[in-house]
Each structure stands twice: as C-alpha cells, then as structure tokens.
Write a structure and sequence with these properties.
With 397 residues, the chain is α/β, with parallel strands linked by helices. The protein is 47% helix and 12% strand. It has 15 helices and twelve strands. The longest helix has 21 residues. It is globular and about 60 Å long. The N and C termini lie far apart (46 Å). The chain binds beta-L-rhamnopyranose and manganese (II) ion (2 copies). The site of one manganese (II) ion has 5 residues, from loops.
Amino acid sequence: MLTDTQREQVLAALDRFEIEVPSWGFANTGTRFGKFLQPAAASTIEEKLSDAGQVHAMTGCCPSVAVHVLWDFPNGLEETHGVSRMAARHNVRIGSINPNVFQDQIYKHGSLGNPDETVRRAALDHMMECVSISHATDSRDISLWFADGSNYPGSQHIRKRRQWFMDGLQELHARLDSSQRLLVEYKPFEPAFYHTDIADWGMALLLARAAGPQAKVLVDLGHHYQAQNIEQIVAWLLAEGMLGGFHFNDRRYADDDLTLGSIDPYQLFRIFHEICCWEWDTGAQADIAYMIDQSHNLKGKIEAMIQSVCRAQELYAKAVLVDHERLAAAQSACDPVEAEECLQEAFATDVKPAVLEWRQARGIPANPLAEFRGSGYIQRVTEERGERNMAGASSYA
Ligand code: RM4
Ligand code: MN
Ligand code: MN
C-alpha cells in the first residue's frame, strides 16, 4: 500500500513525465534478413501521426512524435508545410528531427567523416535543411545518429575523421536558434564492424563539447556493450550538464530495439533513479528528452508502443519513491545492505493504484492497452491500409 506522501509523489511525477514516440516505430520494419509486413502498419506521415495520436489518447503522456526526415519527408523541407497542422489534427506535435545521412549510396564510406569533401558537404547540407525543418515544425531538438565507421583496420584515418566531425558539428551548431539543441547519439558497432566514429559516450561528449554549448549527448539504451553500467554513464553526464536525452528500448544481445523494460526493467529503474537522485541533490529539474526508439516486427506496433509507455511511467513512478535521505545515510555509513534495500523496496512497490488514479483524473482509460485493443482502430486501419501494405509497397518511410 502506498502512503499518502508516496501517492502524491507518484501523481506529481506522472504530471511531469512525458515521452516521445518515434514515427518509424509505426512503419513496417524487419531484420537484415527480411521484412515482416503488417497490414495495419503506417506508411505515410499522416498514418504515423494518426497512430501516434492513438498512443497519446490511450496514455496521456506522449504529446510529441520524433520524425526521421528521409523516411517521413523524402522531399525535405517543401514537404513539411502543413505537417504541424496535420499533427495537431491528431492531437500530437512534431518532436525531434532526425536527419538521415546513412541511407544514400554516397554515404557508403561515411557522412561527416567521409574522406570526400563533397560527401561531407552533402551531409551537412542535409542536416542544415533539418534545422530549417525544425524551425518550420517548431521542434527543439535535432537528434543526430551517424552510421559512420569502417569495417577493416587501417582502412580509414580515425583522427582525420574525428576532426571532420568536429568541424561539421560546429558549423551545424551555428545554425541553431538559442532555444534549440543538438543531440549526439553514440553506438559501438553496426553497421560498421571495425570502428565507429562516435562509438561511445566519451566520444559523443567530446564532440558535443566541440560543437557548442547547445549540443548534448543522447543515450540509446541499446547502444552499449553487454554488461556496461549505463546508469553510471547517465550519472556522469548529468554531473557534466551534458545529458540531453534518451532513446529507450531494451535488448538481450545488441541493438535489438525491443520493448522498453521487456528484458531488464530494473535497469531502466536504476537509470531513472540516477536522474531522481541528481534532482534531489541539486534541487533542479533535469532537462532531458525521453524518447522511445524501438521497432517491432512481430508485435503490433501501436500495442508495443502503449506497452512501452505504460512500463516507462511505472518505472519512473517507482524511482521517485526511493527514500533519498535514508539512502544518503546508508551510503555515508557504508551500509550496502541498507542502501540496496532502499532501491529494491522502491522497485518492488506497487504503484499501479496511483497510476490508475492519475489516469482517472485525466479521463484516460484505466487500462490503455485493453482499451486500445477493444477500440476497433486496428481493424479499421487494416481495412484501409492492408492491401497496400501487403503488396510490400511500404518501406521504413
Ligand atoms: C540507429 C539509432 C538511431 C535510429 C536508427 C534508425 O541504430 O538508434 O537513433 O534513428 O537506428
Ligand atoms: Mn537510437
Ligand atoms: Mn539503435
């Protein structure tokens, strides 16, 4: 049973907790061996926004949608006219803008790290256009992920490429409005299998610092080696004022993009705990973009997204229940058992009654997943989209 104080803590936490869904999470995706088509998958930006609108209607905490420029707007800026109004029709808004400098043939050997100056320029031009798109859509964050790297030792000059990244990101940073941010994402491998230009949080941090004060690091939970302590990275980035956002997902092996919390919910709890702990220590509220980056090829896409969002709310609510005074005392006394109990007790607390109360107060379905499943939405869009989808016409876009 939650005490009254705990209940209020959870309600206040849910009031401030928002999470962004990715447009690409509603589209047909697959593995490198093939794509499994779903008749209800979204292919146009309107369909993706409509699906995202469903997630927000069911959960009440997903007001924004991340977009991937080439997949959502293959013709760039000109295609973004009216898209904010379209989003508003579905009760959402356009969130972070994700450039795509990995898909075109010219990027075979990299984008900002490519030895060919004309390719580096093309990548930068595309990212500059993304800044213009962000102005048109009133989006704050430009979220950068680079597939740059090489497959064999000696095939690329690591330090030259580092410098090209620094130069390019600096130029891009100069284009931002004062309220905007660049988020720099890292990933140890895939698609490159020998070296990746931004392979870990240290490289992302240094590049963000070189780019300018509005550049921060983005932590994608799937982008670490097995056994890496992600919450420690989070704590360090917070201490450095450099944590910009997250891509939430879960994994068993590599960058599996599975439903958040499906494999190791305690890990995300520990990450949220480090954020709450920083807030407790500083009295400030962390300015972090929580985003989902998942792609489900077996589960229904909207259902998986609703699962993820509900799981994130619960884990966040549990993390705010950690008793920081008690924990600080246990840490000072070097009492690992008592300290661990502080975390485990909060993690084991049933926050569902408070989450339910929060939903009821907002007129949100008590059980978002069940409500969605019973709503008939999937049946309706299956009819509308099924034929086109099963003809294989859609791609990630
Ligand atoms: C990458 C990375 C990026 C995402 C692409 C599709 O692994 O996570 O954030 O945009 O996949
Ligand atoms: Mn990501
Ligand atoms: Mn990824």
